Amino acid sequence: MNRFHFADRSSSPDSSRRRLLAGLGAGAALAWPGLSAFAQREGVQVGPPSRMSALAPPSDQVEAQAAQEYDKLLQDARSHNQLALPTHPQVVRLDYISRRLRPFASMWNARAANWQWEVNLIGADQINAFCMPGGKIVFYWGLLDKLKLTDAEVSMVMGHEMTHALREHAREQMGKQQATDIGLTAITSLFRLGDVAQQMAGMGQQLLSLKYSRDDENEADLVGLELAARAGYDPNAAVSLWNKMMNLANNGAPPALLSDHPSSPDRMANIERNIPDVLGLYERAPKPDCTFGPPGSPNNAACIAALNRDARQRSNEGFRDRGQ
Ligand SMILES: [Zn+2]
Q1: Where are the alpha helices (DSSP H) in 24-148?
Q2: Beta carbons within 10 angstroms of residue 231's beta carbon
């Protein structure tokens, strides 16, 4: 599938993010200040993280395993000429939107201040996206193209998927299964990772059916809504996004994203009920200085050129940071 120019993409440490987050040290202090204080914060109310994670492997192990699986996935996409270049307009767009959301991530998980975030676009038709533990994000071309997602809708998917990682829902599922001996490999089935998932096929239906729970989905909807609102994206886009998804499902073509992320009938009502809680955050947030559109819309050439320049500069800084 050679819809656009795919080629190698090498990752580089995200040093500017570290500096940015160092200036946001308050984020870590906000993490889990206790229920009563938490209930008074502005934004959505979702309570403390699940205790089931206590039974799962430690966060750093899960994140390290996820990083390995992410690299395998990228290698696989690259070998099929399906990995988008970092300079592709839709990758620049995804990266820009993710960078608007990232500064608020450590409010939800102090570990996120040290994550090496990555965003990649895979040129396959499936309507899917995910964020693996540790901040490794993938979007699929089919999601952007078939649903013609606006920037705000992309930010809602991004926030939703980032929340699964921030709230460590994968670890929680591992803990629920009490599969601590095979927990690390369970992550590959949660993300349905190509060859690795096939190798796992003999390991039993239980592992392959590992999914996020409906509670996790509700939490991801709400925290994602808040992350996107703080980043300056209109929370009403969450309604249009999930309407687009559910219309496809009702027409007999359920998006992969919905089959891996069970949806409850009251999903829309839950989102709509919580929009007023983030509206003030959205209204006061600085708005994006770059706007884009779905594939096929006119490119925002000035923004893309400027953002590509920024990316090259970060890459050079990364080399300097490593003493090269
Ligand atoms: Zn989800």
Answers
A1: 26-29, 35-39, 59-79, 89-101, 141-146
A2: 25
- Assess whether pLDDT exceeds 90 at residue 178: no
State the distance from the centre of ligand 1 to the C-alpha of 202, rounded, in angstroms: 26
- Find the 257 Cα to ligand 1 centroid distance in Å: 7
Record the tokens describing residue 14, joined without a space.
């995200």
261 Cα to the center of ligand 1, angstroms: 5
pTM of the model: 0.78
User: Of how many residues is the chain composed?
Assistant: 324
The pLDDT assigned to 193 comes to: 52
Instruction: Please say whether the beta carbons of 207 and 200 come within 8 A.
Output: yes
CA 160 to ligand 1 center in whole angstroms: 6
- Domain map (residue ranges) of the chain: 53-317
Measure the CA–CA gap between 13 and 115, rounded to whole angstroms: 10
pLDDT digits (tens, 9 = 90+) for 219-231: 999 999 999 999 9
CA 32 to ligand 1 center in whole angstroms: 22
Task: Calculate how far, in angstroms, residue 214's C-alpha sits from the geometric centre of ligand 1.
Answer: 9
How many other C-beta atoms lie within 10 A of the C-beta of residue 211?
A: 16
Angstrom CA distances, 33 to 27, 105, 166, 244, stand at 11, 16, 16, 37
300: which 2 tokens? 């925002």
Phi-psi sector, 120: left (phi>0), alpha (psi -120 to 50), beta: beta
